[in-house]
Design goal:
The complex is a heterodimer of chains A (308) and B (558). Chain A contains 16 helices and no strands. In chain A, 81% of the residues lie in helices and 0% in strands. Chain A is mainly α. Chain B is mainly β and 558 residues long. Chain B starts with 6 loop residues before the first helix and ends with a strand. Classes of the chains: A mainly alpha (308), B mainly beta (558). Chains A and B meet through helix 8, helix 15 and helix 16 of A and strand 12 and helix 6 of B.
Chain lengths: 308, 558
């Protein structure tokens, strides 16, 4: 009985492989010809009928580039069922999760990936980024430090480390990492703005203003640079200028509770109590939303470095 | 042994004083504080379960420095706590009253005093509640607070029930102030978390009871908080709960701990700051009609500069920059920062990083704190005691956080709006790692050096006697107000030497659940005379003394 089953399977395999290959070829042709609906269907068929992980990865890439992050994640979950330890699948899942602003999914995936491939700096870096997005700075710091140890002097890792240090108020360390990041890539506006923030934290206001201004010269909408200018102007009691900079920061980063908190203070100093209350309410809503995200992270068994 | 004051020697020292504190590498560490607890006869031990599996075992206890027997010397009262295991045996905890004998020794007078067993003690504040000229004691606790009335013979009578001050639940901070300016001292009590000792949240039961991947006690987040109380002193030995009417009941149940009464805006009416753990802090602004308006957010003292709610524990206030206004120093959880909120008259600014007090505080969980001019240079410095809440931390990689036992922080005021953390310069006493909670400050022996008393969780207290030499001149001002507010709680003292004006306020309840000596200590630097001492009394009247000799304890009567 067993030999009969084996024979049947062996006999059927080349035909199935041929079907899968022809389906993938047809999908490629459809994509090349701009027939995206047809390509999607063919890739889906290849995934479901033939268990082709490659087809599902291609489909997820299509969905992701088309802005369908939820669809891409669904496709990648199917791929992960077929190949739970595939580095390609996990990597794709992590990147799509990050792009879809689903830090929890990204973290869980990256934790698996970093266990599978502990010496790949990029995965540690991505895990750090995901943890930053989730608000778990101590864990992010650990992951980024591992990335930095595996691949020193990578400007993006250094920038992320600087951002995490800034978030944790370790401004000296942040300044060192960010300055080095900018030595390696002087055009990085976000790193420049982050350096300004660290300098402001060190009460080096002149340097903070200089670097924030440089960042704004490259990108006038930069949220972090505008936040730095806003907070500096507030300490200088130039509240109208502070308000304008903070509003620009809020426009660029509407999810930031910090900006709304600072705006509530500045409006209170300007005597506009209604606007102060509005931004205080916004701040509190965003704070609760951020806390809910962090709680979801904890509930899912991730993080845990923050006091409950 | 504590030496009694030698004014001539101190005056000579004062002339030589004006120098920066010694730097590392300049030779042997100079002595600033010496722990004299054992030599002084202090045998008190605070009790707490070693593993701190429940939050109720991590938060006690306060310490009071007050003159219970009116002999002119500050005495000491340490608050003890029970544990979950000993909760049914209140006698297991013994709070302790020590009489200052004046020769560097203290005598345990607990049994005679009747202050030994307030139950699961948390904090303490003192005030002359009935205006008889003798300080009474209020002890906050888990399960019922106590008002102990001073019977003027070394004993106290528990008047909690008759006064209407039996607060249930879990009380923490307390402080008396005359919020409605009727001449009588009213009482505010902060409360922390709602707990049922028979249904405590299980240690490490889920992800909300973990810290860096290890099982720890649960809370305060995830637990229900409790509201606060304001009691109006009716003047007949009774108090009335006016919390809701006054607008300070905290219906959302934030996790209240340290408190400070002070008139932040100089309008003559006491305002109230409440440090809340893991939730926004409160600043209740007195509306002069028996009510308060909570204004911490618009005034800039609710949260961190990022808008993050911090784990606030202790609070102290001082005119650290000679601006004439009282700024706030709030201790917080680790990986947060101790917050210095500068009083800008109409609002506050978070100057924690600008003042350089914040960075060194990040690894520590801060509790008791005080502005103390330890070197008598006229600039109030800051001392903070630390200690984590999770003993389990010592078993794991800690990252940025220090371990369970933690050193103290001493911030030297540089006189330019910034501070320098200098604890390491002064030898092992401040660097010794402990699990500290309450802190009270005052000059125990009238030698002009401000001393610090600390209540450690689950351990022996410290009495840090100030032995810095040389240090500047000094004056201690003791106020005697009109009855019933005989300690002049709420009075503001302004001491002027040349162009230097220092201010201090007489407070009941401050730091972390503790009570400072109500006499106010001022460092005078090299000044050879105090040009004036002005007192703004709680009733709005003023008095002024001129040409006062330094290096003495001076009593000013209303």
């Amino acid at each position: 009985m067993l030999s009969l089953l084996l024979a049947a399977a062996l006999a059927g395999l080349p035909a199935q492989q041929a079907d899968r290959e022809s389906t993938l070829k047809a999908a490629s042709a459809a994509m090349a010809g701009g027939r995206r609906d047809e390509a999607r269907q063919l890739l889906r068929d290849a995934g479901t009928r033939f268990g082709s992980v490659r087809a599902l990865l291609l489909l997820a890439r299509m969905q992701s580039t088309e802005g369908d992050a939820a669809g891409a994640l669904e496709t990648l979950r199917a791929a992960r069922k077929l190949a739970p330890n595939s580095e390609d699948v996990l990597n794709a899942m992590a990147q799509v999760s990050l792009a879809a602003k689903s830090p929890l999914s990204a973290i869980l995936t990256l934790q698996a990936l970093t266990r599978l491939c502990p010496s790949v700096a990029q995965y540690q870096y991505l895990l750090g980024v995901a943890l930053v997005r989730a608000g778990d700075m101590p864990a992010a710091s650990d992951a980024l430090a591992r990335a930095d140890a595996l691949e020193p002097d990578h400007p993006l890792t250094l920038m992320a480390l600087g951002l995490v240090d800034t978030q944790q108020k370790r401004y000296d360390e942040a300044k060192t990492a960010l300055a080095r990041s900018l030595e390696l890539d002087s055009d990085n506006v976000e790193a420049r703005a982050a350096l300004a923030e660290a300098e402001a934290g060190l009460d080096d206001i002149a340097s903070a203003e200089r670097d924030a201004s440089r960042a704004l010269a490259a990108d006038a909408r930069n949220a972090r640079a505008n936040l730095v200018i806003g907070m500096v102007r507030a300490t200088q009691e130039r509240y109208a200028e502070a308000r304008d900079a903070l509003l620009a920061s809020s426009t660029a980063d509407p999810q930031s509770p910090k900006v709304d908190y600072q705006l509530s203070l500045v409006y209170a100093r300007l005597g506009d109590q209604a606007a102060a209350k509005h931004h205080l309410d916004m701040y509190q809503q965003k704070l609760r939303a951020a806390e809910a995200e962090l709680k979801a992270l904890h509930d899912a068994g991730v993080g845990g470095a923050v006091r409950k | 042994m504590i030496a009694r004051a030698l004014p001539l020697a101190i005056a000579v020292c004062a002339v030589a004083w004006m120098q920066a504190p010694p730097r590392p590498g300049s030779g042997q560490a100079p002595t600033l504080f010496r722990d004299i607890a054992r030599d002084a006869g202090i045998t008190f031990q605070h009790h707490a379960a070693p593993e701190k599996k429940f939050i109720v075992e991590s938060m006690s206890g306060g310490v009071a420095m007050f003159d219970y027997d009116n002999d002119g010397r500050p005495d000491l009262y340490f608050v003890d706590s029970l544990t979950v295991e000993t909760a049914s045996r209140p006698e297991s905890a013994r709070s302790a009253l020590y009489r200052n004998l004046g020769n560097g020794k203290f005598q345990d007078v607990t049994d005679k005093s009747g202050l030994g067993h307030p139950g699961w003690g948390m904090g303490v504040c003192t005030a002359d509640v009935d205006g008889d000229g003798w300080q009474d004691v209020y002890v906050t606790a888990l399960g019922g607070n106590h008002l102990y009335m001073n019977k003027r013979d070394g004993t106290f009578a528990d008047a909690t029930e008759s006064a209407g001050l039996r607060v249930g639940g879990w009380s923490a901070g307390c402080g008396f102030a005359d919020y409605d300016r009727d001449g009588r001292l009213d009482l505010f009590v902060s409360r922390y978390v709602k707990v049922d000792l028979t249904h405590l949240p299980e240690f490490g039961k889920d992800k909300t009871c973990e810290y860096r991947g290890i099982a720890v006690q649960c809370g305060p987040r995830g637990l229900q908080g409790e509201g606060d109380f304001l009691f109006h002193n009716d003047g007949n030995g009774k108090f009335t709960d006016v919390s809701e009417k006054a607008g300070v009941s905290d219906p959302r149940g934030y996790f209240g701990l340290g408190i400070a009464w002070f008139d932040f805006n100089d309008d003559g009416w006491p305002d109230l700051y409440v440090a809340n753990d893991s939730t926004a802090n409160f600043l209740y602004v007195n509306q002069k009609d028996g009510t308060f308006k909570e204004q911490a957010f618009p005034l800039g003292v609710a949260v961190s500069e990022d808008g993050a709610e911090q784990g606030s524990m202790g609070v102290t206030l001082g005119d650290y920059d000679h601006s004439g206004r009282f700024s706030l120093f709030v201790t917080n959880f680790s990986e947060e920062y101790n917050a210095l909120y500068h009083n800008d008259a109409s609002h506050f600014s978070d100057v924690s990083f600008k003042s350089r007090t914040a960075p060194s505080s990040l690894p520590y969980v801060g509790w008791g704190d005080a502005f103390i001019d330890y070197d008598n240079d006229t600039w109030p410095d800051v001392i903070v005691v630390n200690g984590h809440v999770y003993p389990q931390l010592d078993k794991v990689k800690l990252g940025a956080s220090a371990g369970y036992r933690q050193r103290k922080l001493l911030y030297h005021n540089r006189g330019d709006g910034t501070f320098e953390e200098v604890a390491a310069r002064y030898g092992p006493v401040l660097m010794d790692e402990r699990v500290s909670r309450g802190l009270a400050a005052g000059d125990l022996d009238d030698d002009g050096g401000i001393d610090v008393v600390i209540n450690d969780l689950d351990g022996s207290p410290q009495i840090l006697h100030n032995e810095l030499s040389p240090r500047g001149g000094w004056i201690i001002v003791k106020l005697t107000g009109k009855a019933p507010n005989t300690d002049a709680i709420g009075a503001v003292i302004t001491v002027t030497t040349g162009t230097t004006r220092q201010r201090a306020v007489v407070q009941s309840g401050t730091s972390y659940l503790s009570q400072n000596d109500m006499r106010q200590h001022f460092g005078l630097g090299a000044a050879t005379t105090v040009d004036s001492i002005e007192v703004l009394w709680p009733d709005g009247t003023t008095s002024r003394q001129t040409g006062v000799k330094p290096n003495q304890v001076m009593t000013v009567r209303q």
